[in-house]
Design goal:
By secondary structure, the chain is an alpha+beta fold. The protein has 7 helices and 16 strands. A hairpin with an 8-residue loop joins β10 and β11. The radius of gyration is 18 Å and the shape is globular.
Length: 291
């Protein structure tokens, strides 16, 4: 990938996202996928933690165990599954490598290969080009978008879940480890939508109550005609402003769409909300990107 230009920075600020071709080499993409295959091969997930991942709040919080498994995943590596992959006893009814929606949220801390990519000079140079003084890593995840069953991600803004004061301090870095096309569930954006603030927030509820999180405000209705697809080739990356509205459709193709994604935040003169679901812990404070 060539050095980010001033025009690239301006386009990101104008549209709320930026597509970068060739961010990782094919070999780097393959190495991350191979490492993830090894993680899946040895995963041992207790039945009560076999959590189906959904962007629907009610689906996420059907049981307190599932909700707790999610809300305490910020400093761990945990597994979140697609719908319909378990039988009534919690056993896999399809191959386990085809069952997972995503793995998160601290690959950047516990897996050396993912840590190396996250802290790479490529990523640090991006942050420096955007003038970030003390960026920290909030979370990371590996997203599978399984062929045929990869679920829809409904329109949302990352700042709904990763709220800061002031807004505009969070950037997602979304790296395609396989081609991401319209038929296998690439991202779609409403360009410029990051300039309108956010309409809802996901917050922790008072300690000792259930559900563990709730929403303040309501998601707006969005004109489908405003969404623009952002297909990207293997190794390409998309920078995502925390307030830009984006989504992805179900994967109805016979091809997966593997992605490594993580979020960084400019911590200089920024307040991270104690109401966010994701919180730094004594075991894993948000690490500096530049170290």
């Amino acid at each position: 990938m060539e050095v980010l230009t001033e025009q690239d920075v301006q386009k990101y600020h104008q549209d709320g996202y930026l597509v970068l071709d060739g961010f990782l080499s094919p070999e780097e993409c393959d190495a991350l996928r191979e490492r993830m295959s090894a993680i899946i091969e040895r995963m041992d997930v207790p039945a009560h933690c076999r959590t189906q991942f959904s962007t629907d709040h009610d689906e996420q919080l059907k049981t307190q165990g599932n909700a707790d498994y999610f809300i305490t995943s910020g400093d761990k590596i945990r597994f979140f599954f697609e719908k319909g992959v378990f039988d009534d006893e919690g056993e896999f009814i399809i191959p386990k490598e085809c069952s997972i929606n995503k793995i998160g949220h601290a690959l950047h801390a516990h897996e050396p290969m993912f840590k190396t990519i996250t802290h790479s000079s490529k990523v640090q140079n991006l942050a420096q080009k955007f003038g970030l003084i003390n960026p920290v890593i909030l979370q990371s995840m590996y997203i599978f978008k399984q062929p045929g069953i990869g679920g829809e991600v409904t329109p949302h803004q990352d700042a709904t879940f990763l709220y800061t004061e002031p807004l505009g301090r969070v950037m997602g870095i979304w790296i395609a480890l396989e081609d991401a096309s319209i038929d296998n569930g690439c991202l779609w954006f409403i360009p410029g939508s990051h300039n309108s603030g956010i309409s809802r927030r996901m917050v922790r509820t008072p300690k000792g109550t259930f559900p563990l999180t709730d929403f303040i405000g309501r998601e707006q209705n969005h004109d489908e005609k405003l969404f623009i697809p952002a297909p990207v080739k293997k190794g390409g990356a998309i920078l995502i402003h925390g307030e830009v509205i984006h989504r992805s459709a179900e994967n109805t193709s016979d091809r997966s769409r593997h992605v490594y994604a993580f979020h960084i935040m400019e911590s200089e003169n920024t307040s991270w909300s104690p109401e966010n679901w994701l919180q730094p812990t004594d075991e894993l404070p948000f690490p500096s990107l530049y170290t």
